[in-house]
Amino acid sequence: MVTKIKTNISNKETSASFAGIFVEDFKAKELQSLKKIKELYNDERYHKTIPVEFKSILKDLYSDLFDKNDNKIKFKLSTNIVDEFENIPENKKLIYLIHRYRYEIFPLKKKIDSYPPLLQIEPTSFCNYRCIFCFQTNKSFTKRSNGHMGHMHFDLFKDLVDDIQNKIEFINLASRGEPLVSKDIVKILKYTEGKFLGAKLNTNASILNEDKAHAILSSGVSTVVFSADAADKELYSKLRVNGNLDNVIKNIKKFNQIKEKHYKNRKIVTRVSGVKVNQVQNFHEMKKVWSDLVNQVAFVNYTPWEDVYSMSENKIKTPCSDLWRRMYIWWDGIANPCEVDFKSGLKVGKYPETSINELWTGETFQKLRYKHSEAKRCNIAPCNKCVVI
Ligand code: SF4
């Protein structure tokens, strides 16, 4: 089920690059996808489905994908894109690519439009784990009286989804907490059905029960990422403090059985993604344990996320790609440019007081982008201590 390829995906698996993804037939699938893109691009019927404001993006995308000029910025199909592209209905495939292109290439071109390519929505900031590399280990973050902890109300989630539907095509249901801890998660998941081209859920799968499995499989979620970093129980529990590997595997097997029995034709990509924090973690062992349970197995390289505020200042001048790629809406509506800054020092406003369009294109966010573009991130805390580029 699984093959090997080196690739880069910048996302919450998490703003780091994959050390390796195993997906056996990637090359063949990539060629097939490229062929399909040419076919759709050259068919006038599919151009009619593209909104006017995206027509020029489609042209750029095609050129950045197929142009052989090495000096150009290249749009490449990652394993993830290829797998998702395959699952997208024919009449939506070009739109899907346009949004992937906005996510991957706009940060390189320092370009934004009215809405972020991806909105990360946090169902809850609580987590039942205390992974050693996570900001959940930061006591001043988890101390309730400091105001960072809470669950998103379903009404806020509903308003948000109603506002962004048909404007933002990718959402990620995760940020600082474990989404399945949210008391409204079943309602939240169900409300995403049919509303997005791509919705991702990151979970540690420790409390993935039958109800939640049904909710995921009948929702708009197109990719589920199960976070796990080890193939043996002891190591797993050392990294994912409070976690039990046997329980997680049992839950994922149950999820697969439910899918097989009740949602046989449901197209969903599943991935196990681990954080590579030490040399003991063995990717081949990971593959042995996980490759029969999920479509993809991946490691992301460790970046010190757990407490950016206590790190030393660095000399990085490269702008942070997240600023052109995504925005986070936390459980209480706070809009933040990233989650490395998990105490929201960079907050750009609050939803619904300010609309998503205004938050994304507003003065506060634009000033931040400007400073990064001018190689002045060293004047901004905590960007001056952060290593994300
Ligand atoms: S702290 Fe600054 S540089 Fe780091 S991820 Fe956030 S916005 Fe980017």
Could you walk me through the main structural features you see in this protein, from its secondary elements to its overall organization?
This protein has helices at 26-41, 44-47, 52-66, 79-87, 93-109, 139-142, 154-164, 185-191, 210-217, 233-239, 245-262, 283-290, 322-325, 356-361, 363-373; strands at 18-22, 118-121, 170-173, 198-203, 223-227, 269-276, 296-301, 326-329, 334-336, 349-350. The protein is an alpha/beta fold and 389 residues long. The protein has a ten-stranded mixed β-sheet. Residues 1-23 have low confidence and may be disordered. Iron/sulfur cluster (SF4) binds next to helix 13.
What is the structure about, briefly put?
The chain has 389 residues and is α/β, with parallel strands linked by helices. It has helices at 26-41, 44-47, 52-66, 79-87, 93-109, 139-142, 154-164, 185-191, 210-217, 233-239, 245-262, 283-290, 322-325, 356-361, 363-373, and strands spanning 18-22, 118-121, 170-173, 198-203, 223-227, 269-276, 296-301, 326-329, 334-336, 349-350. Helix 9 (210-217) packs across helix 11 (245-262).
